[in-house]
Amino acid sequence: MASAAVLLLITVLATASALVPAMAGTSPSPRHPAARRSRFLLVGGTVHPPLPAYDCSKKSAGACLATGTACCSGQCVDTVASVHHCGGCDKACKHGRMCCGGRCVDLLSDKKNCGACSNQCNKKCSYGFCDYAQ
After folding, report:
1. Given this model, what pLDDT does residue 73 score?
2. Is the separation of the CB atoms in 107 and 115 below 8 Å?
3. Distance of alpha carbon 94 from alpha carbon 106, whole angstroms
4. Which alpha helices (H) appear in the chain, and where do they start and end?
5. Are 91 and 105 in contact (CB under 8 A)?
6. Which residues of 60-92 are buried (b: 16+ CB within 10 A; e: fewer)?
7. How far apart are CA 11 and CA 30, in angstroms?
8. Residue 78 and residue 68 in contact, taking contact as beta carbons nearer than 8 Å
9. Over the stretch 107-128, which tens digit does the pLDDT of each residue have?
10. 4 has which bridge partners?
């Protein structure tokens, strides 16, 4: 019984040592040697280009159906929260300011938007905290 166990152990070790060098010579892909590719992505076999962006400028004025959106430079944008189109097309907020309700505000000191949009303070907003150090 002991000799059968030793023989089985030697067979397993010999098989494992033979597989390691054989696996070391494989490469991921001949076209992209450093890239690993998912088999899930290769199922279709063809690569499709990205879809073009929706161009609302070629449509009617109501092409952007969501409330608070407008057609700016051919794209529907949220003019209520977009930093680049705050309150209207191409009205960008200055550095350090955010767009809350279509207005550029400083979240660190605005009493009605303290730290986040619509976070109102009773007395004062300092460093984005209501009534800080009082």
Report:
1. 84
2. yes
3. 9
4. 2-24
5. no
6. eeeebeeeebbbbeebbbbbbebeebbeeeebe
7. 34
8. yes
9. 999 999 999 999 999 989 999 9
10. none
* Residue whose entry in the numeric block shows the structure tokens 């092409």: 63
| Side chain identity at residue 102, one-letter code | G
Q: List the structure tokens of 27.
A: 């490469």
Tokens 């407008």 label which residue?
A: 70
pLDDT tens string 7-56: 777 877 777 776 655 555 554 545 555 556 565 555 555 555 655 556 77
On the CB side of 80, how many CA atoms lie within 13 Å of its CA? 7
| Sequence-separated (6 or more) residues with CB below 8 Å from residue 97 | 83, 104, 105, 106, 107
SS3 category, 20: helix
Residues near 99 by beta carbon (within 8 Å), at least 6 away in sequence: 80, 81, 82, 83, 86, 87, 93, 105
DSSP state of 24: H
Token pair belonging to 101: 């309700």
What is the amino acid identity at position 34?
Answer: A
Cα gap 79→110, rounded to integer Å: 20
Q: What is the DSSP letter of 96?
A: T
Give the model confidence (pLDDT) of 73-108 as tens digits: 888 888 898 999 999 888 999 999 999 999 999 999
